[in-house]
C-alpha cells in the first residue's frame, strides 16, 4: 500500500492505493492485468513510466501518459522513439533513460551484500514525536499519539527483556 506509483515499474505485482476507511474503498492495481489489457511487455511498461516521468530522469516535453503509451505501442521502445520525435518534443540533456531503465529492471542479484549494510534499528518515538510537533503543519491526532506511545513502551519492554536474557 502506497501513494507512490513507482511500485509497479519497480516490480511490485499488486499495488493498493487510495485507501479510504470512511468509505471502505481502495484502488488495487495488478501489474499482470495492466500489461495484458495494454498489450505490452513489462519492459515497454517501464519505458512508458520513464516517459511519463519518474524519480530517475527528467521528462521529454509534450509527452504525457496517453502519448507515451501510443508512442511505445508504435515504436516499441525509447531508443526507436527518440529517432521519431516531433520538433516540439524537447529531450533534456540529462535524459538518461538507460540508467532509469536499469534501476527499474535491476534484479538485485547481490542483495546479500546489501543486507550486511542495512541494519534495522529500533524507532526513537520520542524524537519522532518531537519532530512531528515541531515541523508538522497539522497536529497529530490523539489516537495516533497514543498508538505511538504504546509502541514505545512495548519497544522499551522488549529491550529490557532482551538485555536480561
What are the salient characteristics of this protein?
165 residues; mainly alpha; DNA polymerase, domain 1; 2 domains; 8 helices
By DSSP (H or I, 4+ residues per run), the number of helices equals 8
Helix content: 40-55%
- The tally of beta strands, per DSSP, is 2
CATH class of the largest domain: Mainly Alpha
Uncertain stretches of 5 or more adjacent residues: none
Strand arrangement, largest sheet? Answer: 1-2
- Distance separating the two termini: 36 Å
CATH fold category name of the largest domain: DNA polymerase, domain 1
Biggest pleated-sheet summary: 2 strands, antiparallel
What class, by secondary structure content?
mainly alpha
Give the ordered list of helices and strands.
Answer: EEHHHHHHHH
Overview of the structural elements:
The protein has 165 residues and is mainly alpha-helical. It folds into two domains: 5-109, 5' to 3' exonuclease, C-terminal subdomain (DNA polymerase, domain 1, Orthogonal Bundle); 121-164. The chain has helices at 31-38, 42-52, 65-75, 78-82, 97-105, 111-117, 125-135, 142-164; strands at residues 14-20, 25-30. It has a two-stranded antiparallel ribbon with strand order 1-2. Strand 1 and strand 2 (25-30) form a beta hairpin. Helix 2 (42-52) crosses helix 3 and helix 2 packs across helix 5. The longest helix is centred in the C-terminal third of the chain and has 23 residues, at 142-164. The protein starts with 13 loop residues before the first strand and ends with a helix. The model has no long low-confidence stretch (mean pLDDT 82).
Amino acid at each position: 500500500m502506497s501513494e507512490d506509483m513507482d511500485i509497479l515499474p519497480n516490480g511490485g505485482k499488486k499495488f493498493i492505493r487510495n485507501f479510504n476507511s470512511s468509505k471502505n474503498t481502495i484502488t488495487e492495481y495488478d501489474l499482470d492485468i495492466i500489461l495484458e489489457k495494454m498489450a505490452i511487455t513489462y519492459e515497454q511498461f517501464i519505458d512508458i513510466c520513464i516517459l511519463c516521468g519518474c524519480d530517475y530522469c527528467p521528462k521529454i516535453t509534450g509527452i504525457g501518459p496517453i502519448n507515451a503509451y501510443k508512442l511505445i505501442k508504435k515504436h516499441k521502445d525509447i531508443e526507436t522513439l527518440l529517432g521519431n520525435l516531433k520538433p516540439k518534443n524537447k529531450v533534456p540533456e540529462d535524459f538518461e533513460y538507460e540508467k532509469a531503465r536499469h534501476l527499474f529492471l535491476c534484479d538485485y542479484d547481490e542483495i546479500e551484500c546489501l543486507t550486511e549494510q542495512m541494519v534495522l534499528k529500533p524507532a526513537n518515538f520520542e524524537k519522532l514525536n518531537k519532530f512531528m510537533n515541531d515541523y508538522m503543519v497539522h497536529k497529530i491526532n490523539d489516537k495516533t499519539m497514543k498508538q505511538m506511545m504504546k509502541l514505545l513502551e512495548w519497544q522499551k519492554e522488549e529491550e529490557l527483556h532482551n538485555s536480561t536474557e
